[in-house]
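Same chain as my last thread, 164 residues:
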Amino acid sequence: MHRRIFLAAALAASAIALTGCGFQPLYGGPSGVRLDGIALVQEGDQRIDYLLRDELRNSFPDDAGRYRLVLEPADVRRTGSGIGADGIATRYDLLLTVSYRIYEDGNPQHVFDGSASGAGTYNIPIQPYAAITSQREGEELAARSAASRITLQVARFLRTREGN
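reply #2:
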């Protein structure tokens, strides 16, 4: 009986303590940084560059605003990680690295630059069309991961820049 009362009191005290901790989301919430108003500019013309841009459009929906996010062409490295008995790679690791710059309207000098990486792995089945599909899924995974990191870095920059 006393244990239940003590447990209930502890839960109530922790709930009250957590409400005053001051946590604010970095982006996406009512008190977070707004990510609209950032125009995306893509310099690369490979499939992986378009995948990255499409993933970033989910986070930065506007094409006009105070800032321009310029994406340089992505660097992609593939390494065989699974080797079959015949010495042929059956699984690949894909590492995508992209550098970017942020420009403020009317300012020819960038106000922030950074880079982000995303990783993906994929199997290489014997069937050629299945291998192509598998590779594309690995590229999509790497682009999604890199886009998520870029979004967080840009949100952190905006939060410090805007003074929130």
